[in-house]
């Protein structure tokens, strides 16, 4: 997830801090979508005319136009493939559709055309949207940067022109233009887009910074250490593109089967036509037998054997807040046997909250008074930790006195005068540095205790004396532990935690939810490596995340799910499914629903295979009347379709949960 330190109006054409600018290809900007929509519309007009007994001149031209609009692109692509000595099922379906029309089954052929045109349009749209989000990620890095010249002068240059060794000035509220290292100044940088950390990170001399991250407070001077093409954010884009283009083993297997099936169908149809003709059969009878064979052997029932269960599962999941992007994804979700989760924004809510109020002995303050003092001093600040303190005071209904003389020091904290007392709120390590008196020692011990338990400790001082310590943490989602347990039961192994956060906070949270495999401090490429390590061991990994930094792992995994409410655009586009309502408990439910859909797919394939085999044998051994062949073919199609629609029922989701 991402956060914003300084809110400013976003310039036209740019995105808010922490997110990639939105680039969305319109559906009808794609030619595939336009042709599929035209074919579907023509089919839906022609079908009722035919069924109500209208004359053929009324619906025939409409079907012909549906054939032309929906079929010319796959037909042309199939012919192009033939030039490369490749035969695909799309071309075979066009031939089957034309064959059906040749023997009077015009509607069957048009239905085939519409199905394949629509699937081609959906595939083109998914590809375009992924490309949009990847290009949008590159816009996180600013177009220009302020380069410092040897004499101290400044010049504004395109970030693409920055070279290794250049010195760049980054003012408060500006995005960092290149990967580099701080050589002067101090500030707090929101780098959620890269590491996924929920809070800004204090940066000082010697610390590394990344292109595309947001400098919140304090000016930074940094030395460029990587060219723009080799920055972390550019490598994220490259990894997403690489993983998205990698073909899954299942896809490669289907391509092999497709070639063999296509060649077999062509050879069989020609044989059914030519062999009887060679033995003296009539031309019309041989042609009719061959066309009947083409119809009954066409894979309409096989297509519907797969799609209705998966599409019904998609629709059911969508009603419960889980958007699964395709039938292929729904099938893959049921195959996963290992899970890797992000921490911030996935297992946690992604928003820092005050969890502990620790007034120190001898301060004379209660919890409410300590929180009032801290919130009053923090009220003018825009820092996320300050917002957490003020929100906690407002939740308790505390009245905040006015703070005067407010000042903020990056990486240290804030100071202000509250009701005549000089109040300081900030990092214990900085405020207590070099102090050894009893009050400071007690404050340091309390801060250490909170930090050991995974909290961020914030020290409160009044008139130079420590009076209390606040503990702030990103709150765990209420359903996190139950979700982890359910996923472990489904896959047979406990999920792993992959996070860019610090090891101590990660370990504490993992212990709360029952995760033992914890990998912390990870950059995006480290998460990808962890996923590929599991897949190399033969596992099919499901990755659940929400940030730009999770996108490469989401793309590299067998299946990826993004948290929708706080998820970055890139994560939402790269992921295979999106949890719209941020209900983590829906993840094991959708995995279980996918497994149920896959079992129905197997049932339907058996039904379809039995019908097709019986009709083909009948046509070859005896004489299968064309109307009976069409009835058997369509009957099997309807049967498998209705079987798959069972997953639309509410009870299917209830059982999955």
Description:
- The chain has 657 residues and is an alpha+beta fold.
- It is 52% helix and 17% strand.
- A seven-stranded mixed sheet has the order 10-22-21-20-11-18-19, sandwiched between helices.
- Helix 7 (249-278) packs antiparallel against helix 8 and helix 8 (283-297) packs parallel to helix 22.
- The two termini are 27 Å apart.
- Residues 1-21 have low confidence and may be disordered.
Quote the beta fraction: 15-25%
Overall body shape? elongated
The Cα radius of gyration reads 32 Å
Q: What multimeric state do the chains show?
A: single chain
Mean pLDDT: 80
Low-confidence stretches: 1-21
Q: Total strand count, please?
A: 22
Name the helicity range: 40-55%
Keywords, separated by commas or semicolons:
52% helix; alpha+beta; elongated; 23 helices; 657 residues; seven-stranded mixed β-sheet; 17% strand; disordered N terminus; six-stranded antiparallel β-sheet
Topology:
Elements: H1 31-51, H2 56-83, H3 89-102, H4 106-138, E1 144-148, E2 154-158, E3 167-170, E4 180-185, E5 187-190, H5 192-195, E6 201-203, E7 208-209, E8 214-217, E9 220-224, H6 232-245, H7 249-278, H8 283-297, H9 300-319, E10 322-324, H10 327-333, E11 338-341, H11 343-347, E12 348-359, H12 367-378, H13 384-395, E13 403-409, E14 413-418, E15 421-426, H14 428-431, H15 438-452, E16 456-462, E17 465-476, H16 480-491, E18 496-498, H17 503-513, E19 517-519, H18 524-536, E20 541-545, H19 551-556, E21 559-563, H20 569-574, E22 577-579, H21 586-621, H22 626-644, H23 650-656
Parallel strand pairs: 11-18, 11-20, 18-19, 20-21, 21-22
Antiparallel strand pairs: 1-2, 1-3, 3-9, 4-7, 4-9, 5-6, 5-8, 10-22, 12-17, 13-14, 14-15, 15-16, 16-17
Helix pairs in contact: 1-2, 1-4, 2-3, 2-4, 3-4, 3-8, 4-6, 7-8, 8-21, 8-22, 9-10, 9-21, 9-22, 10-21, 12-13, 16-21, 21-22, 21-23
């Amino acid at each position: 997830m991402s956060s914003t330190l300084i809110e400013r109006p976003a310039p036209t054409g740019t995105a808010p801090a922490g997110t990639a600018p939105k680039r969305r290809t319109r559906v009808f900007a794609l030619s595939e979508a336009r042709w599929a929509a035209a074919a579907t519309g023509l089919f839906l007009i022609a079908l009722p005319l035919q069924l109500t007994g209208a004359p053929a001149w009324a619906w025939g031209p409409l079907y012909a136009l549906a054939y032309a609009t929906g079929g010319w692109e796959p037909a042309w692509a199939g012919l192009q493939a033939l030039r490369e000595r490749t035969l695909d099922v799309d071309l075979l379906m066009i031939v089957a559709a034309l064959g059906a029309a040749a023997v009077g089954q015009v509607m069957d052929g048009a239905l085939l055309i519409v199905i394949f045109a629509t699937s081609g349009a959906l595939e083109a749209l998914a590809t375009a949207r992924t490309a949009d989000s990847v290009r949008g990620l590159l816009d996180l890095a600013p177009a220009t940067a302020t380069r410092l010249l040897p004499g101290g002068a400044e010049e504004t240059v395109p970030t693409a022109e920055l070279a290794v060794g250049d010195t760049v000035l980054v003012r408060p509220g500006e995005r960092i233009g290149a990967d580099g290292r701080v050589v002067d100044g101090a500030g707090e940088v929101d780098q959620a887009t890269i590491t996924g950390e929920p809070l800004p990170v204090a940066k000082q001399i010697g610390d590394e910074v990344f292109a595309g991250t947001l400098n919140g407070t304090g000016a930074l001077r940094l030395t460029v250490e990587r060219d723009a093409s080799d920055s972390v954010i550019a490598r994220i884009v490259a990894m997403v593109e690489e993983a998205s283009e990698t073909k899954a083993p299942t896809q490669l297997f289907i391509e092999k089967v497709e070639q063999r099936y296509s060649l077999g169908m062509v050879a069989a149809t020609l044989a059914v036509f030519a062999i009887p003709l060679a033995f003296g059969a009539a031309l019309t009878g041989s042609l009719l037998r061959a066309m009947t064979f083409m119809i009954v052997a066409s894979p309409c029932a096989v297509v519907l054997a797969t799609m209705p269960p998966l599409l019904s599962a998609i629709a059911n999941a969508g009603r419960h807040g889980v958007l699964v992007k395709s039938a292929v994804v729904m099938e893959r979700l049921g195959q996963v046997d290992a899970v890797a989760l992000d921490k911030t924004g996935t297992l946690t809510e992604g928003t820092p909250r005050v969890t502990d109020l620790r007034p120190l002995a001898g301060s004379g303050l209660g919890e409410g008074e300590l929180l009032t003092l801290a919130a009053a001093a923090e009220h003018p600040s825009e820092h996320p930790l300050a917002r957490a303190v003020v929100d906690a005071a407002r939740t308790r209904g505390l009245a905040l006195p006015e703070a005067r003389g407010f000042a903020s020091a990056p990486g240290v904290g804030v100071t202000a005068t509250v009701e005549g007392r000089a109040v300081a709120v900030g990092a214990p390590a900085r405020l207590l540095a070099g102090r050894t008196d009893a009050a400071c020692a007690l404050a340091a011990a309390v801060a250490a205790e909170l930090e050991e338990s995974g909290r961020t400790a914030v020290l409160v001082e009044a008139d130079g004396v420590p009076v209390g310590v606040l503990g702030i943490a990103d709150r765990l989602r209420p359903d996190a532990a139950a979700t982890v347990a359910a996923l472990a039961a489904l896959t047979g192994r406990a999920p792993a935690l992959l996070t860019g956060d610090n090891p101590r906070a990660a370990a504490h949270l993992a212990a709360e939810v029952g995760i033992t495999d914890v990998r912390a401090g990870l950059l995006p490429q480290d998460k990808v490596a962890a996923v590929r390590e599991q897949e190399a061991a033969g596992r099919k990994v499901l990755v659940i995340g929400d940030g730009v930094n999770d996108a490469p792992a989401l793309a590299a995994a067998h299946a990826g799910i993004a948290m929708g409410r706080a998820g970055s655009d890139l994560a939402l586009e790269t992921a295979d499914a999106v949890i719209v309502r941020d209900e983590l408990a829906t993840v094991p439910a959708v995995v279980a629903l996918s497994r149920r859909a896959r079992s129905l797919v197997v049932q339907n394939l058996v039904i379809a295979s039995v019908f097709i085999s019986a009709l083909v044998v009948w046509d070859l051994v005896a004489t299968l009347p064309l109307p009976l062949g069409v009835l058997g073919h369509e009957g099997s199609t309807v049967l498998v379709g209705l079987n798959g629609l069972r997953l639309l029922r509410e009870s299917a989701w209830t059982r999955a949960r």
